[in-house]
Amino acid sequence: MTNFKNFFGFTKEPFPQDMRTEDFHLSAQLTAAVERFLYAVQTGGISVITGEVGAGKSSALRYAAEKLHSSQYRLIPVIASTGSINEILKQICFGLNVESKSISISTLMRTIRGVVAEVVGRKQTPVLVIDEANLMRLDVFAQLHTLGQFEMDSKPLMPLILAGQNALLDKLRYHTSRPLASRVVARSHLEGLKHKDMAGYLKHHLEVAGIKEQLFSEEAMTALQQSSGGMLRKTNFLSRGSLMAAAQEQCRVVSAEHVRIAATELI
Ligand SMILES: Nc1ncnc2c1ncn2[C@@H]1O[C@H](COP(=O)(O)OP(=O)(O)OP(=O)(O)O)[C@@H](O)[C@H]1O
Ligand SMILES: [Mg+2]
After folding, report:
1. Any idea which ligand is nearest the CA of 193?
2. Nearest residue (CA) to ligand 1, atom 16
3. What pTM did the predictor assign?
């Protein structure tokens, strides 16, 4: 099999899954999501980021979180599950590096509030970031807002960022989630890449990997966009696969047929 990286002359792995945030493609919607994340952090509110599978939600969280200096902010990253509120609270304790032996909701809440108060006392802002939040149960949504509340404080002490698939919004709109939803101050939705964005996105990835010329034909871009719906993960997998298919045929320009070959490997 032709080594496609040598064939095209890539100096780095193209379309990697673990891209450094410095190398990210800075789209208008990524910038907008990051601005909203930071606005919620400043105001002590809640920000919600939604998008379909592979739209770039976790990457946007990673990118925004890197803007928070560790001397001023204490990031508490949590990947949600379908478990009970106790499980989420235990994960938050884990994120705060505190032991969580208790199974009582009130004890767990008290422990978390205690650590949050200590963090605030050190002039740091704790920032709770929950990814895959669409998985959380409705009873978790109904109780989560109480975590950020401290008696007598008018401003919530712990901003919350929720990211997840679109079902997250449905859960937030449910009547028992109202207390949490009413604290949302900014919301962003990551759409798939449109056809007009594709050339710039692909060019960016190629340049990061050391290639200045556009290796994808117009038809290949159309096929990529149609096949991936513009979702970044799928676009990346297909782009990489179609580069391999093109190299296999010793073609320096990727055609729509190469994209179709790559698509047969994906589900
Ligand atoms: N701004 C960007 N520039 C370049 N690549 C990106 C960017 N954002 C995301 N990606 C790439 O797209 C892929 C999917 O991104 P990510 O995992 O963030 O999506 P997601 O919406 O969290 O997906 P899921 O719904 O499965 O959790 C990753 O491999 C990531 O490196
Ligand atoms: Mg994700």
Report:
1. 1
2. 56
3. 0.95
